[in-house]
Amino acid sequence: MKLTVALDWTPNTLQAGLWVAQAEGYFKEKGLTVELISPEEDQYAITPGKRLAQKQVQIAIGPSETVISYNTLGENSVPLVGIAAMLQQDTSALVTLKERGITRPAQLDGKIVGSYGARFEDEIVRQLVITDGGKGNFTVKKPEKLSMWQHLKEGSVDAAWVFMPWEGILAAHEQLVFNVFQLGNFGIPYGYSPLLITHQDFIRDENKALRAFIAAVEQGWKKVKKDPRKASRRLKDYITTPAFQDEKLIRKSLEQIVPSITNERGQWGFMEGYHWIDFVDWMIENQILKDTQGIPMNHGQIDTAMLYTNEFFK
Fold first, then answer.
1. How far apart, in whole angstroms, are the C-alpha atoms of residue 167 and residue 82?
2. How far apart are CA 65 and CA 188, in angstroms?
3. Are residues 196 and 180 in the same domain?
4. Residues whose CB falls within 8 Å of the CB of residue 75, separated by 6 or more in sequence, listed in order
5. Residues 72-107: pLDDT tens digits?
6. Are 36 and 115 within one domain?
7. Among 262, 277, 264, 267, which residue's Cα sits nearest to residue 308?
């Protein structure tokens, strides 16, 4: 059975479990041929979520917002479903370069914030600024998705939303210092990111293959957790992208990720319902979640139980 996965980004350590599963032959052992598609192939012309919604792929990587967005498009809604949390804790953050003197989110008023153009992204960042006492009056700049890191380094944007175990490690490697604003530190109950996502139809029609896929990815992530040093060597040998050729950088990144791989019960991938409820409720309460007419949605309009499933861990 062949499965195709749309990656959220070019190869990086937040996808490590998939790459290790591929490199170690875990997919093959379970009768699967798995193709991992990098967004570099079309310069991010089609997002992973859109590829999945159009059934070009069976699995995509993305944040909780991807699932929420496709399930709240009215007549055009698509039943995308989160099937595994790649990490148990949020490792993302809005960051600024320390040299620019922006030491808290409220100071982003009047500044330029880099945006990937996702449906809820700018409003989540705006609420972060407001929560910190600002007005949320910043300018949004949308560079090409794969160039955000370069724009942040060059200072053409004052802030960007990044993953600390990857861009944070890259920044330290390049002797850049970040001021870091994690959403949880400002009372924002951000959802799971990144997630493995599929279409409800595939859960019905390809259940056995998806179950085998999840089991292989779990093996990959648990191997990373058990020995990040060995995993870093394996990734360096297996992945040809330039950033992966620095084994020390990869190892530092994986070591930072390790605490987030499993929950307190030692489970990988399992999702807690309250994480989905809290994030959706927060979006509703702050009028971030709106229907296709721009009207704020209420608590009765979205069933969070339809957004995710833990059935592959039973």
1. 24
2. 14
3. no
4. none
5. 999 999 999 999 999 999 999 999 999 999 999 999
6. no
7. 277
A 10 A CB-CB count for 210 gives 23
Compute φ and ψ for 206, nearest 5 degrees: -125, 35
Task: Give pLDDT, residue 134.
Answer: 98
145: exposed, middle or buried (C-beta count within 10 Å: 0-12, 13-18, 19+)? Answer: middle
The answer to whether the CB of 194 falls within 8 A of the CB of 8 is yes
Final residue of a domain: which of 161, 186, 211? 186
pLDDT less than 50: residues of the chain: none
Q: How many CB atoms lie within 10 A of CB 65?
A: 22
Residue 62 is classified by DSSP as: E
Task: List Cα–Cα distances, 11 to 16, 182, 295, in angstroms.
Answer: 8, 23, 38
Q: Which domain holds residue 132?
A: 92-186
Q: Nearest 5 degrees, angle CA 251-CA 152-CA 11?
A: 40
Q: What are the Cα distances from residue 235, in Å, to 43, 73, 152, 253, 308?
A: 23, 39, 27, 12, 30
Query: Could you tell me if 195 and 61 are in contact, meaning their C-beta atoms sit under 8 angstroms apart?
Result: yes
23 DSSP 8-state letter: H
Omega before residue 79 within 30° of 0, cis:
no
Among 186, 205, 225, give the residue marking a domain's end. Answer: 186
This prediction's pTM: 0.96
Contact 210, 189 (CB under 8 A): no
The number of angstroms, rounded, from the C-alpha of 213 to the middle of its chain's C-alpha atoms is 19
Query: What DSSP designation does 14 have?
Result: G
DSSP, collapsed to helix, strand or coil, labels residue 81 as: strand
